[in-house]
Design goal:
With 425 residues, this protein is an alpha/beta fold. 31% of the residues lie in helices and 23% in strands. The chain folds into two domains: 196 residues, Rossmann fold; 182 residues, Nucleotidyltransferase, domain 5. The longest helix is centred in the first third of the chain and has 15 residues. InterPro entries: P-loop_NTPase (IPR027417), Phage_terminase_lsu (IPR006437), Terminase_L_C (IPR035413), Terminase_L_N (IPR035412), Viral_DNA_packaging_terminase (IPR052380).
Length: 425
């Protein structure tokens, strides 16, 4: 069987090295919408077609995120290449099979690395791994455990390869020293960076939002626009958040919801969470630009916002009123007063935030949300203005927990100051 495909026309030329390199490790960090995940999917299909001995193991920290990300992306690429009749897609187990040869793509999560090491191919060898969203990986030891298990004799000319793709949210992550720092990185590594300039399928609105981010939030733009390593000092929520895969139904606590309104340059952010003691489990919502009030109401309803109170930005009374006319009757404005935003942020630091992968925008914001600096370069106790929309929505959601009196009234300035002092902040 002979299949003729021109992969070079499918991706930007900066990705050509994915198909030509024989390096043991390919580490690709990228900005938002750089096209790296789609390029990775093309790489998976290419190597299956090109090397009959090759099987892939696609790994993410959380297995539950695979079906709607890596699996779906590879399926899209197969369709774009006109190869639907040659591949079989199954969801239980989550696998892709190249029908003519029986080669497979296996999908696994890092919840139990030892289970991954036992995966064996029916035809050929597992000699490729794709570590997508590798920034989510918990520790280097687990990564090494899996890598060291990928071994065995290949046909003459065969080679092993591990593709690692991620957004570089913090310069402290071990990915930096292992694959990018010249003094410490492993041997036989191809590492490079791509940005939205390497994706020719973006519309003008998205490109405009990237340019706007450079002006409004340089810290986040370092990662999201330029693909550089995020800064690790001065984070408002330093050490207080992590991404986790959890079942919200298994957590007992107080359900809260909040929304921060946006439109063109700023997204509308809606969050759902559970408060359990000093732990907050954030597990749902949406994060979208350009939402008019009626479609916003539909999204709120689809995300479970028809029952319960939703605390919203009080600066948009008209939006709140229109949401109520569209059936979102539980939406209500938060109280505001002198220094209320700073006080709210201080109070939020009393919690540990467990962020579900479905609430990824909150994780990204907390990874780049820093304090302002004075003219001497010292950090002030005032957060930077910028992309903190999911953070604001979560702060609003906490309104009845942190700044509401027993009679339901909003605390005055002195009461809020005292509330913050009482928790030692």
């Amino acid at each position: 069987m002979r299949i003729n495909l021109d992969f070079h026309k499918a991706v930007d030329q900066d990705y050509y090295k994915l198909f030509s390199s024989h390096s043991l490790f390919i580490a690709l960090k990228g900005a938002r919408a750089s096209g790296k995940s789609v390029a990775g999917a093309y790489k998976v299909v290419y190597d299956i077609l090109r090397y009959p001995y090759c099987n892939w193991l696609v790994i993410r920290q959380f297995q539950t995120t695979q079906r709607n990300s890596t699996f779906s992306t590879i399926r899209l690429v197969v369709h774009l290449l006109g190869l639907d009749d040659f591949f079989k897609f199954t969801v239980s187990p989550l696998e892709i099979t190249f029908i003519p040869t029986g080669q497979k793509v296996y999908f696994r999560g890092m919840d139990d690395p030892m289970k991954i090491t036992s995966v064996r191919a029916d035809v050929g060898m597992i000699c490729r791994t794709w570590w997508e969203e590798a920034y989510e990986l918990r520790n280097l030891d687990d990564f090494n455990t899996v890598i060291e298990s990928i071994r065995g004799e290949l046909p003459e000319g065969g080679f092993y390869q591990h593709l690692i793709t991620f957004n570089p949210w913090s310069e402290q992550h071990w990915l930096k020293s292992e694959f990018f720092d010249e003094a410490t990185k492993r041997s036989d590594v191809l590492s490079f960076t791509t940005t939205y300039h390497n994706n020719h399928h973006l519309d003008d609105t998205f490109i405009k939002s990237m340019k706007e981010m450079v002006k409004r939030n340089p810290n986040r733009a370092r990662v999201a626009v330029f693909g550089d390593w995020g800064i690790s000092e001065g984070l408002v929520f330093d050490g207080l958040f992590e991404m986790e895969d959890f079942d919200p139904k298994a957590i007992t606590g107080r359900q809260i919801m909040g929304i921060d309104f946006g439109f063109t340059n700023d997204p509308t952010a809606f969050v759902k969470a559970i408060v359990k003691g000093n732990d907050i489990y954030v597990y749902g919502g949406f994060y979208k630009h350009g939402l008019l009030n009626e479609p916003m109401a539909r999204l709120i309803a689809q995300n479970g916002g028809l029952s319960g109170q939703i605390y919203a930005d009080s600066a948009k009374p008209r939006t709140i009123a229109e949401l109520r006319t569209h059936g979102i009757r539980g939406v209500r404005p938060v109280g505001k007063g002198k220094d209320s935003n700073v006080q709210r942020m201080e109070f939020m630091k009393n919690y540990k935030f467990h962020i579900h992968p479905s609430a990824r925008p909150l994780f990204e914001e907390m990874s780049t949300f820093t304090y302002k600096k004075d003219k001497y370069g010292k950090f002030l106790n005032i957060p930077e203005d910028g992309d903190d929309h999911a953070i604001q929505a979560l702060g609003y959601a906490l309104e009845p927990v942190i700044f509401t009196n027993k009679d339901g009234s909003y605390m005055n300035y002195r009461q809020r100051v005292q509330a913050v002092k009482e928790i030692g902040l």
